[in-house]
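REQUEST FORM: STRUCTURE PREDICTION
Request ID: SP-0412
Submitted by: Lab K.M.
Chain count: 1
Length (residues): 313
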Amino acid sequence: MIFVDAHCDTVLKLLEEENSNLLNNNFHFDILRAKSNGNYLQFLASFIEPSYGQAYSLRRALQLIDRLYKEAEIHKDHMMLCCNYNDINKAFSVNKLAGLISIEGGEALQGEISVLRCLYKIGVRSICLTWNHRNEIADGVSDGSTGGGLSPFGREVVREMNSLGMLIDVSHLSEKGFWDVVENSEKPIIASHSNAKAICDNRRNLTDDQILAISKIGGTIGINLYPEFLNNTQDASLKDIILHIEHIASIAGNDILGLGADFDGIECTPRDITGVQDIGKIIEELYRLNYSEEFIEKFAGQNFLRVIKEVIG
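STATUS: Completed
RESULT:
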């Protein structure tokens, strides 16, 4: 079985803990534990902390990407950074973890479309347009009450990401920004780590209308494992994860769901899942509930792989 996880923040943890590494650590995610699940593709996010502001966001993004490239070189026998669908298959064929570089926070572009093109050239293939707050692209979920959506620059970013072959990630985006992206993107979009608002009424989760919109344009949603986004508490379980899967599938079908664990970007995990080594427990529970093999394989990774192949190539 192929697994795809569309979001983790482990690269930031590597910078925070000087002597840590990506191969084997005490974080939520490392290469060896991921590979124990089988073929595994991990989106590796460069999260721009708000403290860097827009003035230093690009510098911070490059620090994170540089550290990721260093880890990939040191552990090249175990992982491969991938720029397209063929690279991913090549990594799997030689039993390596496949890594895809993403950025969480479009402020890294600093209002310059040329920066977007340069980031593409160094391997970035997905950008979460905002974190929780406003940047030059759009408003984040924390600013949703202002009704701000995509700026003129944000619309240019969407067009250029479509042209380059980059995944547009709408997790953290304001609702108005979300609908602007749906209107302006000619390619499927992703919500890399978001859940269902009907199950957990949290600003970071998606309404049923948003879920249906992503489905209609062929996109995908990665189920986030943060308990706050599962049930608005710090105590969640497999049952809560399944509730979100069931709800999204019930309104949008089998082709939209995937994983977006948010490992190492969340304060706690569900009590049944302490790290990437436990991802298989979700699959086991789906089997126990008599979900079909096709549904489970799509959820585990095939839905995200389909979008990667269509958008990135």
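NOTES: Residues 2-311 form a domain with the TIM Barrel fold (CATH 3.20.20.140).
Reviewed by: T.R.
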